[in-house]
Amino acid sequence: IIPTIDLKEVSDKILNQKIREAGERWGCFRVINHGVTLSLMYEMKKTVIDLFERPYEVKMRNTHVLPESGYMAPTVNTFCDQLDASSNQRETMLEYAKAIDGLAKDLARRLVESYGLVETDYFSGCPSLFRINKYHFKPETVGKPGVQLHTDTGFLTILQDDENVGGLEVMDNSSGTFFPINPLPNTLAINLGDSATIWSNGRLCNVKHRVQCKEATTRISIASFLLGPMDTDLEVPSAFVDVEHPRLYKP
Ligand code: AKG
Hints:
With about 250 residues, the chain is an alpha+beta fold. It has helices at about 10-25, 40-50, 55-60, 75-80, 85-115, 195-200; strands at about 5, 30, 130-135, 145-150, 155-160, 170, 180, 190, 210, 220-225. The radius of gyration is 18 Å and the shape is globular. The two termini are about 35 Å apart. 2-oxoglutaric acid binds near residues 221 and 223.
């Protein structure tokens, strides 16, 4: 149901328009021809699976900064040091981080451009962060939530969801109905977060989503969050505020 957008679409104008429409209607879409190679996605997933196998004490070296959000470290290199990643794994993670960050910023710029704004680098200096998720689904957890319904706080999330195991569901804002985001190998799922809704004065949808356990198996996902600006406030472009669209959020 959610749109699949081909990023190799020849016309920038049409592509940007499609991204904007999907962002306003769903806050969620899949992308194909996204430029992150299949081999890099595969190597990244292999690396993540291996790092999850590290002993508990090793994983605990990684600072737990945000409550309930798993392990988090300041940089990919620090994370790799803490988890005793091999040099190949480090290389994979750095390459993946760079590719995903580039894609996230490209999508953010396209969204900005789609509104005809002159200034297009709102998000070019924003940090990205990873979250790697491993779901230990068991027969007794089938039908139960793996991740509760939530929105992401950043501007945009790039999700490499499990290519075999489903469970991700997004809520259609207008009806409250849930739609499954079924696995589709070699694609990435994009979710817009709270910062996108705030920045666009309510035009873009911060998609509510959750993960349900569908089958008793392991599910792995890699979420990369492009956050809003860190050292300045998120400024709502004046083009988004007029009599028909009063300011929804306090600066
Ligand atoms: C998150 O990490 O915020 C997610 O929503 C994960 C989604 C997934 O595992 O597919």
